[in-house]
Amino acid sequence: MLGEESGRTHGATRVCRRVPFTTAAGFAVLVLVSALLTWDLPKEEAIADESPSPARVAAPPPNILIINTDDQRAPETLAVMPKVQRLFQGGGTTYQNGMVSTPLCCPSRSSLFSGRFSHNTGILGNGIPDAVAAFDQDSTLQGYLQDGGYQTAMVGKYLTTVSLMNSPKNWDHWAVTTGGYVNVPFNVNGTYQSTSGYVSQYMAQYSKSFLEDFETSDDKPWLLYVAPQAPHWDYRPSPKYRTAPVPEPVKPPSWNEPDTTDKPPWVQWHPDIAEADYLDVRAKQLRTLMSVDDMTGAIFGQMSQLNETRDTLAIFMSDNGYLWAEHNLDGKRYPYMESTEVPFIVRWPGHIPAGVESTQLVSQIDLLPTALEVSGVSPQLTYPLDGQSLLSPTSRAVALQEYFKSNDSALAPWAAIRGETWQYIEWYDADSGGITFREYYDLTADPYQLVNLLKDGDESNDPRVAPLKEQLTAARICSGEDCP
Ligand SMILES: [Ca+2]
Ligand SMILES: [Ca+2]
Ligand SMILES: [Ca+2]
Ligand SMILES: [Ca+2]
Questions:
Q1: Is the dihedral of CA 214, 319, 138, 199 positive or negative?
Q2: Distance between CA 59 and CA 439 in Å, rounded?
Q3: Which of 89, 240, 308, 344 falls 20 to 30 Å from 359 in CA-CA distance?
């Protein structure tokens, strides 16, 4: 049975106690690996960066840039993003098992900011304004870093259901939207601003102007969080890319899965997705991402002018993935890989290996612990953090994924345990909480999740359910160090 060992194995390096880089066991290895690789820097900068001088140890904490798209599946969507490929995939580490703890906008984003699972933030779904209003904005990435001396700015979507006129807390600058692609209104530092034209150009402009403002005092590091609309419904490309060519679609074997008798009834009942709809959504999503690529290039251009690219830890990810007709499904929310996995790429020249892929299980709840580790900010935590630093020398053996009944969907709740090579899923009755269906996939033998081993009519290949159930039951109520 795979993945029986539960929980994390890295208790000695929890991020809340700051572990200096010089003593972190994995760091020396990272530096050595990095020195053997190249990244997109002018030569003299790269050389200076490779020398393990004492200056590195005393170096000021890095800036932190997070670009968090909306509904972008991994990895094929990156094919239309050459700048993201060059800057992030070429210049950083791509996490093949990068995922989100809950594949839905509002829960995913609140967990990113707080470093905590939805079952601890209480933001379980979309369309729950009371829970969102009660969200503790101080005990967040932005709250802790701002208190710790960082300048902070946000551009784009915050928690998607917050009214535009509610200014978000703990940002020195902000230009927030509630979504949309064209003529989108922004709340800019508390003032309503209408815009005329395509949204990503404005996001690039606001980002660049906030960066300029930050760098009027070079000695203070900054956090910039940018959350584009793309490639969310209604998938509207900019005029520049409206008819841009997209890569030929490659339909996986799970495309409108021919035999779904192993799946829960509510998946079986789902009608096939029409091919024309699939092609249309796919092409439009890819075209909207081309503008995000331009925006990313513009932000890095500005950082480069300000001489800050090397001193910045940058993360490219999405709040959830998206099904393109796999298992006859479209959209997000489901436990299957195309829905729960996201692009997850991290760069920090000289610190994070460049141009490599990792199979480590990572998610958005790890960003706050990572930020605390690299910044050296060690706040009095209001709540224990459920995630762990990406720079931790040990990685988790399994990851928890959870989805709760949301006001904007009829989909039943579920929870899952993901190992690197397998996934165990339980579906629940929304009222009683009782288990209604189980799935188990061997992702090595069955990477497209075609055969649920618990419902294939062959008991000889079944995993042992009892320990999996026990592990998932514990994870669903975990907090802090108890979390996997
Ligand atoms: Ca989303
Ligand atoms: Ca600076
Ligand atoms: Ca099947
Ligand atoms: Ca079986």
A1: positive
A2: 48
A3: 308
Of all residues in the chain, the percent with pLDDT exceeding 90 is 83
> Which residue is it, tokens 């984003």?
109
| Rounded Cα distance, 314 and 348, in Å | 6
Omega before 75 within 30 of 0, i.e. cis: yes
In the 8-state DSSP scheme, what is residue 87? I
Query: Per-residue b/e over 178-189, b at no fewer than 16 CB within 10 Å?
Result: bbebeebebbbb
Tens of pLDDT, residues 134-144:
999 999 999 99
Eight-class DSSP state of 61: P
Q: What is this structure's pTM? A: 0.89
Residue positions counted in the chain? 484
Q: What are the domain boundaries of the chain?
A: 11-394
Q: What is the DSSP letter of 77?
A: G
DSSP 412: P
Mean pLDDT of 183-200: 97
Measured in Å, residue 97 CA sits from the centre of ligand 3 at 22
CB 401, CB 408: distance < 8 Å: no
**Mean pLDDT in residue range 125-130:** 89
**Which spans in 341-437 are helix H?**
367-375
Residue 358 pLDDT more than 60? yes
105 vs 114: CA distance, rounded Å: 14
Give residue 28 CA to ligand 4 midpoint distance, Å.
Answer: 45
CA of 349 to the centre of ligand 2 (A): 15
How many whole angstroms from 448 Cα to the centroid of ligand 3?
A: 9
E strand or H helix that includes residue 358: strand 356-363
**Largest alpha-carbon pair distance within the chain?**
66
Q: Residue 23: which pLDDT band, with cuts at 50, 70 and 90?
A: very low
Compute the distance from residue 375 Cα to the ligand 2 centre, in Å: 13
Mean confidence (pLDDT) of the chain: 89
- Alpha-carbon distance 200 to 182, whole Å? 9
Alpha-carbon gap, residue 378 to 372, rounded angstroms: 6
Counting Cβ atoms within 10 Å, is residue 307 exposed (0-12), middle (13-18) or buried (19+)?
exposed
Q: What is the mean pLDDT of residues 224-234?
A: 98
Q: Provide the CATH topology of domain 11-394.
A: Alkaline Phosphatase, subunit A (3.40.720)
Place of tokens 């040990």: 394
Neighbours of 258 (CB within 10 A): 10
DSSP code for 280: H
Instruction: Say which DSSP state 233 is in.
Output: T
